[in-house]
Amino acid sequence: MLRAIWLTTQNEARLLIKDPTVLFMLLFAPVIIITVAGYSLGSLYGGTANSFRLPAVDLDHGEVAHGIIEALRKEHGVTLEMLDDPDEARRLVSRRDRTPVAIVIQEGTSVAVAAGGKPRLILFVDSVRRVEVNALELRIDELCRRITEQARTAAQSQIESFGEAQAITLPGDIGFVEKPAIEGEAVTVNAFDQYVPGFGVTFLLIGMMLGLALTLFDERDWGTLKRLQVSGAPLTGLLLGKVFARFIVGIAQMVLLFAVGWALFGISLGRNPLALIIPTIGISFAAAALGLVVASIATAHDSLMSLGVTISMAMAAIGGCWWPLDFEPGWMRELAQWLPTTWTMQAFNDLMIRNQPPSAALLPVAATIGIGVIFIVAGLLRFLSLDD
Fold first, then answer.
1. H-type helices in 74-123, by residue range?
2. DSSP codes joined into one string, 262-287
3. Total of domains in the chain
4. 80, 191, 198, 277: which sits with the fewest CB atoms below 10 Å from its CB?
C-alpha cells in the first residue's frame, strides 16, 4: 500500500514537472488575483495610491464656510476643486470618474451656525459609487463635528471671560443632506443591482471557458475538427458556429440571471428592462470570442482551465465586476478601458441604477463588440496557423 502511494506520488510529480505551463499557472494565477485585489482595495486599508476629486461650491463666503474649505484642503486623499455653479458640480459627479460627491455650502450657513441653528451642507452623490460616497461622507461628517466643537469651545471661552452678565448664544451644529447628482435618481440603491450583473458577467466568462474553450481544445486534440474538415466543412465556419452557439447560450444565461435577481432580490431593471439586452449581447459576444482565443493558445487540457479561469477572474476584477473602478490605481483604470467587462458594467449601471435611456448603452456596447472582434480575429488566425 505505502509503495503504491509513493510510486503514484512520484508519477504525478513527474507529470507536473513535464508540463511547465500548469506548474507556472499554479503559482501565477493566485499572484495575479492577489495583485489585482491588493491594488484595488488598498485605499480601504489606508492606501495612498488614489485621490478623490471633490467639487465644492461656496455660496456662503462666511467664516464657517472658510473653515470647511480649509479643512477639506488638508484632507488626505482628497483634491478639492472650487466651482461657482452648483449645476456644474452635479454634472461632474455624474459624468467624471473619481468624483463620487460634490459639496455645496449654502448661503447663510455661517450666520445660522452663529445663531445656534442647524444648517445643512448639500452633498450631490452618485448612487452607483455608494461605497466611495460613504467613505467621503465619513470624512465630511468628522470635519463638520470638529468645526462645530471648535466654534463651541471658542464661544464657551467668551462666556467664561465675560461672566454670566454677557449673553452669548452657543453655535449650532453643521450637518449635510444627500441629493442625487442626476434628477430622479435614488441616493441609495439595492446592493444586488451591482452584484447581480457583476458576478453574472464573471460566471459568464468562466462558463465560456468550460463550454467553449475546453470543448474546442478537446476536439482539436482528439482530431474531431480535422475529420469535420475532411468532410468538407471549412475550419472558419466550424469555429464561428461554435462561437455563435455559445453566444446564444450566454445571452440566455444573463437573461435568466436578471429574471431571478428581479424575482428574489428585487433588483432594478431600469426604465426599460428590454434595454438590458443591449449590453448582454455585447458581453456574450466578447466572452465567446475570448473563449476562442484561450482555446487556440492553450497547450494542455489542464493549463487551459488554469489560464482561462485566471484571465476571466482578472478581467472581471479589473473591469469593475467585483468592486468600483474608482478604487483602482490610475494605471489599472487605464488598462480597464481595454476590457469588455468595464464597458459592460458601465452600461448596466447606467441602465439599472442611473435610470438612463437605452441610448446610454450604445457606446459601451460598441466598445465591447469592438474588443470582441479583436478577440475573434486573433482566435481565428491562431487556429488557422495551427491547421497549416
1. 86-95, 109-114
2. HHHH-----S-GGGGHHHHHHHHHHH
3. 2
4. 191
Q: Are residues 329 and 349 in the same domain?
A: yes
Q: Cell triple for residue 326?
A: 474608482
Contact 220, 161 (CB under 8 A): no
Report the C-alpha dihedral over residues 298, 302, 305, 310, rounded to 10 degrees.
Answer: -80
Q: Is the pLDDT of residue 165 over 50?
A: no
Note whether 43 and 49 are within 8 A (CB). yes
Tell me whether residue 356 is in a domain: yes
pLDDT at residue 384, rounded to an integer: 82
| Residue 221, helix vs strand vs coil | helix
> What confidence tens digit (pLDDT) does each residue in 181-218 have?
887 677 777 888 888 999 999 999 998 888 888 888 77
pLDDT at 251: 94
With respect to residue 170, please indicate whether it lies within any of the assigned structural domains. yes
Give the integer Cα–Cα distance in Å for 16 and 238: 33
Looking at per-residue pLDDT, the higher value among 53 and 341 belongs to 341
What pLDDT was estimated at residue 63? 85
Mean of the per-residue pLDDT values for the chain? 82
Task: Please give the Cα distance from 343 to 168 (Å, whole number).
Answer: 58
The grid cell for 89 is 458640480
Question: Pseudo-torsion of CA 254, 256, 262, 268, nearest 10°?
Answer: 30
Instruction: Say yes or no: 237 and 176 in one domain.
Output: no
Residue with cell 476643486: 81
Whole-number Å distance between alpha carbons of 333 and 336: 5
Q: Is residue 1 part of a domain?
A: no
Q: Is the pLDDT of residue 16 over 80?
A: no
Q: Whole-angstrom Cα distance, residue 347 to residue 278? A: 9
Q: Are strands 101-105 and 52-58 parallel, antiparallel or unpaired?
A: parallel
Q: What is the reported pTM?
A: 0.78
